[in-house]
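Worked example 3 (structure in, sequence out).
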């Protein structure tokens, strides 16, 4: 097998593609040939040493991938060789040609969903689903304010909330995107020119039910104060790079709640519930109610340089590494948006 190995954080010399033995599955494990692995914003932070959790060195990054089952270990009855699957490994390791994972972390990909689309969608839509449905208890007819709607999780949250029949308000620096998006929020606020607190007081004087915030920074307090009585503020992340200090008096006064949302730790604590969340996302992709951006595909040998380059300017750009050099398309021939997303990418010698 071939895999990217991180031996030190934040340097080009610290990451390299290496050869190694192909792992074999043990009891209740599955061996998978990887066809597409997601490269998330958090993955880039981990490799640079900038994330709040640092895995022990050396390690192979990557948490989510799609591929084909090669072999199953004793005790695995629901998966079989040849099955197309998504795998989520909380202990990383998917930036490789092959991986072994517990069978409870492996879910079959429905017909009509391309491998690269599946790999690129699980983390963003899984986080959005966990935030809104499990932690936020969002109900049909409620109003949700989504900050950072131009990023991966923000975009996924908008589509997920619309799917749940909520009224969605977005805050974004790219309002033109939402003007032509397949799924459109009820209201789009341009963060570059909008005074959020004043705009929300004018349009929603009674406040909204839920705020989903993957950004943090200087809009956090205004968003908190835009919640109505009993509103829920979902703290998803700090893409702005600044952790806000939320005033406790504004939490107390209207019986608001500030709710932490950290899908990765929930998965670690509740591994038997992981498959359910993945299945929700995959089934929505198969039904065509989610519209993830088409992934940008890179070869495994090119990944070290991609990781150390500046991240894409748009948070909607999804990067997927293709260990074998091409993406396997579902026999139905369509991705989530109804078009084939199979692409060829350059492959260095020896891949």
């Amino acid at each position: 097998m071939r895999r990217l190995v991180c031996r030190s954080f934040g340097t080009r010399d610290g990451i390299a593609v290496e050869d190694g033995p192909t792992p074999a599955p043990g009891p209740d494990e599955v061996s998978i040939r990887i066809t597409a692995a997601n490269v998330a914003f958090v993955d880039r932070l981990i490799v640079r040493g900038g994330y709040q959790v640092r895995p022990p060195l050396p390690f192979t990054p990557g948490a989510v991938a799609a591929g084909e089952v090669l072999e199953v270990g004793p005790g695995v009855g629901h998966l079989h060789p040849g099955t197309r699957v998504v795998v989520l490994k909380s202990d990383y390791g998917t930036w490789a040609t092959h991986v072994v994972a517990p069978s409870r972390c492996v879910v079959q990909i429905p017909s009509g969903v391309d491998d690269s689309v599946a790999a690129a969608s699980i983390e963003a839509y899984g986080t959005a689903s966990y935030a809104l449905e499990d932690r936020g208890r969002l109900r049909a007819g409620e109003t949700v304010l989504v900050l950072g709607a131009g990023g991966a999780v923000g975009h996924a949250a908008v589509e997920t909330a619309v799917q749940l029949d909520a009224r969605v308000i977005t805050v974004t620096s790219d309002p033109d995107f939402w003007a032509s998006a397949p799924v459109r929020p009820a209201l789009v606020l341009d963060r570059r020119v909008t005074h959020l607190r004043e705009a929300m007081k004018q349009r929603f004087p009674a406040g909204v039910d839920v705020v989903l915030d993957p950004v943090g920074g200087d809009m956090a307090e205004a968003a908190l104060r835009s919640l109505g009585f009993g509103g829920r503020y979902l703290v998803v992340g700090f893409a702005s790079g600044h952790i806000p200090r939320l005033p406790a008096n504004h939490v107390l006064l209207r019986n608001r709640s500030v709710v932490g949302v950290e899908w990765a730790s929930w998965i670690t604590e509740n591994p038997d519930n992981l498959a359910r969340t993945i299945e929700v996302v995959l089934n929505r992709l198969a039904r065509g109610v989610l519209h993830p951006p088409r992934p940008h595909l890179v070869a495994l040998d090119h990944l070290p340089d991609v990781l150390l380059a500046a991240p894409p300017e748009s948070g909607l750009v999804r990067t997927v590494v293709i260990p074998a050099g091409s993406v396997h398309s579902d026999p139905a021939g369509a991705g989530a948006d109804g078009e084939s997303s199979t692409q060829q990418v350059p492959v260095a010698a020896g891949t």
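Notes: The domain at 139-261 is CATH 3.40.50.720 (Rossmann fold). Residues 209 and 231 are 5 Å apart (CA to CA).
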